[in-house]
Automatic annotation (TrEMBL):
Protein's recorded name: DUF72 domain-containing protein
A Pfam family this chain is assigned to: DUF72
Superkingdom of the source species: Bacteria
InterPro entries registered for this protein in UniProt: DUF72 (IPR002763), UPF0759_sf (IPR036520)
């Protein structure tokens, strides 16, 4: 039984020399990250379709059971709003093909303006995607969280296409006033929507945003630890991504979440031991 956990990126300046070796060439950074976590959010693909050669390097640096949840480019989701983007989708799928089974899901993050009136377009888009790829949808329009009919209609669209609803849980961040510059910045940019914890498929994906204070982050994920443990007992295969506003401690926090779930479900396989940030010395 495996639980996949990860962060929003695989390289981050505050991690250097603390958690990951530095300097590392670009074609070694993901490999070092993968000794800490067994999944990563593919956020970089939101800004542009990656070069196939770059994706081939990602595949070389990870094992086949490592998970990428790759975000579709904003040209598809935000600019075209899922309409008339067949060429862009084909180019993206061709680019990520070298990852093979590592592509755990195609992540369709929709803008906050994408609401109930757009569900027909989402349904058509999901059914045009190849069935060989799992798909996961993140919505931010408040109607999907506050209006029961809109929520039900979205679930029907997702279920009919075998797609998962990805919650981005920011409730811990917004529970109290920000106390750092990074938290203040997150308050202006992150969606403020209710927590949602219902899985639609056997492959649920959670994005959890805590605080820059470690204790606040850990306290805020207690319910998620229990939910994820329940999914594992049901035979589901969850993936959880841990964020904080500055992400300085995100790597060890992701592993700590894994430990918390494993304490509830001891059958979960442990994560590998991380690669040391500094080479061992003789004395």
């Amino acid at each position: 039984m495996r639980l996949h956990v990860g962060c929003a990126m695989w390289t981050h300046a505050p991690w250097q020399r603390r958690f990951l070796p530095h300097p590392l060439p670009p074609d070694e950074r993901l490999r070092a990250y993968a000794t800490w976590c067994n999944a990563v959010e593919g956020n970089t693909t939101f800004y542009a379709t990656p070069a196939r050669t770059a994706v081939e390097s990602w595949a070389r640096q990870t094992s086949p059971d490592f998970r990428f949840v790759v975000k579709l480019p904003k040209a598809i989701t935000h600019e075209r709003r899922l309409n008339g983007a067949d060429d862009e989708v084909r180019a993206f799928l061709d680019a990520v093909e070298p990852l093979g089974p590592r592509v755990h899901a195609l992540w369709i993050q929709l803008p906050g303006s994408f609401g109930p009136a757009d569900l027909g377009g989402l349904a058509r888009f999901l059914h045009r995607l190849p069935r060989s790829h799992a798909r996961a949808v993140e919505v931010r329009h408040r109607a999907f969280f506050e209006d029961a009919r809109s929520e039900r209609l979205l679930e029907q669209v997702l279920t009919s296409a075998g797609a998962e609803w990805v919650p981005f849980d920011t409730t811990t961040l917004f529970r109290s006033r920000p106390t750092s510059d990074a938290e203040r910045d997150a308050w202006t940019k992150k969606p403020r929507v209710p927590r949602r914890s219902r899985a639609l498929t056997g492959r649920p994906i959670v994005r959890y945003l805590g605080r820059d204070d470690t204790s606040g982050t850990v306290e805020g994920w207690r319910d998620w630890a229990g939910t994820v443990a329940g999914w594992l007992r049901e035979g589901r295969s969850p993936t959880v991504f841990v964020h904080t506003p500055d992400n300085a401690e995100a790597l060890p926090l992701a592993r700590r979440f894994h430990d918390d779930v494993r304490a509830l479900v001891p059958e979960v396989e442990p994560l590998p031991e991380p690669e040391p940030a500094e080479p061992p010395t003789l004395f």
